[in-house]
UniProtKB/TrEMBL annotation:
Belongs to the bacterial solute-binding protein 3 family. The keyword Transport applies. This is Amino acid ABC transporter substrate-binding protein. InterPro entries: Bact_solute-bind_prot3, Solute-binding_3/MltF_N. Residues 1-21 form the signal peptide. Keywords: Signal, Transport. It comes from the Bacteria. Residues 33-264 form the Solute-binding protein family 3/N-terminal domain.
């Protein structure tokens, strides 16, 4: 009986503590900034310049959340994390949000106490080799040494692919994506494998005389939906992050961009009126200002703008939109409506 009573008291105490705990939004407002976990340095997604200014798609997701929650996209503290560190940092409360080219999987969604708030980039795992290897297909890689980052789905996908195709390989494991690129560059492996977007980004770091000396093979061996994560148990913060991403996607569909959003305040389009917070659900349900979505687009941009300047044709990576185009333009990028 004593054990039962003790357990019940423990549960009640935990419930009271949980009830009294400040929400993530309250904590963010109190400290005045969003603490966001990002990659230690991946061009196009999260990378600091020589002055410590961060840029990238994942970085812009963090800034969109800050614009919505605090009205200022600059109020973000970026915490660079390795693949091994990222989930613990979010679970422990060290960061408010993880936006670090992380793949949405069943295991991560169901066993880590974390929630994915949407897909910011649809990717797939591929392989990069030097032209001198004279390989044109991943099916020719049996016996190859493969540079790979530890603590990622890439490790598991690689093992599955080689086992399924009856091939052997020698894994050369690194803790960071930068280490993978340096290992490949130094000749420690024949092949580098990662999400295709990362391969194009890491190729920029190689010391090869020409980037074209390293080629990406045609095979894509996995689905890699990449998106931001939050801790489970705070539905309000989960909604804020989820709808911040959705706002950028919906803004592009509505034709709203940084340069024209102010001119659309007099629009008669009901969908635009709802988006701008002039009608419809506004911000009350998430305890945000009514113009929270306007703040995101005005300060950060719509999804198309974010894609283009970080990884698309307006960036050094020159990645085609492909499946990351809007659903009505041949892609699969789609967000719930503002209604």
């Amino acid at each position: 009986m004593t054990t039962v009573v003790t357990c019940l008291l423990g549960v009640l105490a935990g419930s009271v503590t949980s009830a009294n705990a400040a929400s993530t939004l309250e904590t963010v407002k109190e400290k005045g900034f969003v603490t966001c976990g990002v990659n230690t340095g991946l061009p196009g997604f999260s990378s600091p310049d020589e002055k410590g200014h961060w840029t990238g798609m994942d970085v812009d997701v963090c800034r969109a959340v800050a614009a919505a929650a605090l009205g200022d996209a600059k109020k973000v503290k970026f915490i660079p994390l390795t693949a091994k560190e990222r989930f613990t940092a979010l679970q422990s409360g060290e960061i408010d949000l993880l936006s670090r080219n992380t793949t949405w999987t069943l295991t991560r969604d169901a066993t880590l106490g974390l929630n994915f708030a949407g897909v910011a980039y649809y990717d797939g795992q591929g392989f990069m080799v030097k032209k001198s290897l004279d390989v044109r297909s991943a099916t020719e890689l049996s016996g190859a040494a493969v540079c790979i980052q530890s603590g990622t789905t890439t490790e598991l996908n690689l093992a599955d692919y080689f086992r399924l195709n009856g091939m052997k390989y020698d894994p050369v494991v690194f803790d960071t994506s930068d280490g993978v690129a340096k290992g490949f560059d130094a000749g420690r492996c024949d092949v580098m494998t990662s999400d295709q977007s990362q391969l194009y980004a890491l190729r920029l770091r190689l010391r090869l005389s020409k980037p074209s000396e390293a080629i990406v093979l045609p095979e894509i061996i996995s689905k890699e939906p990449l998106g931001p994560l939050v801790r489970q148990g705070d539905d309000q913060w989960f909604n804020i992050v989820k709808w911040s991403l959705s706002a950028m996607i919906n803004a592009e569909e509505l034709g709203l961009a940084r340069a024209n959003i102010d001119n659309n305040k007099m629009s008669k389009d009901p969908a635009i009126q709802r988006f701008l917070g002039l009608d419809g659900p506004k911000g009350k349900g998430m305890e945000l200002s009514d113009d929270w979505a306007w703040q995101i687009v005005k300060q950060v941009g719509n999804y198309g703008e974010v894609f283009d300047r970080n990884v698309g044709m307006g960036s050094p990576l020159k990645i085609e939109r492909g499946i990351n185009n809007l659903w009505n333009k041949g892609g699969i990028m789609y967000a719930p409506p503002f209604r």
